[in-house]
Design brief:
Layout (H helix, E strand, L loop, with lengths): L5 H10 L5 H12 L7 E2 L3 H8 L3 H13 L3 E9 L2 E6 L19
Antiparallel strand pairs: 1-3, 2-3
Helix pairs in contact: 2-4, 3-4
């Protein structure tokens, strides 16, 4: 999901209403960032944490929680050294079309 309108922001707020506030903030942050054609946000966690006003450690913990609960997934192909990049899953956009490329499972 990539937020392009106020209506999409409201839809995402409704969809994430059961999440704790920090998790909602991170989901909305990922949805509002530029994404590549797989939906991956190619901004580092350090920069995303700064934009959200969180410490890198707090942002990392919240992001791990979102991965564990199925809201985010790591792009297994795109890595720069130890830096990993993530995208929102279908859980954040249940009405997504099939145009988004799916990741292949890693072996």
């Amino acid at each position: 999901m990539n937020i392009e309108s106020r209506e999409e922001i409201r839809d995402l707020l409704k969809l994430t209403k059961e999440l704790p506030p920090l998790q909602r903030l991170v989901v909305i942050l990922y949805a509002s960032m530029d994404q590549d054609d797989t939906g991956t946000v190619t901004v580092t966690g350090l920069n995303l944490a700064a934009e959200a006003g969180m410490t890198p450690q707090l942002f990392s913990r919240v992001r791990r929680e979102l991965v564990a609960s199925g809201w985010l997934e790591e792009n297994p192909v795109l890595r720069i050294g130890n830096v990993r990049f993530y995208r929102l899953t279908e859980k954040a956009n249940p009405n997504a079309d099939a145009a988004v490329l799916q990741f292949r499972p890693t072996a």
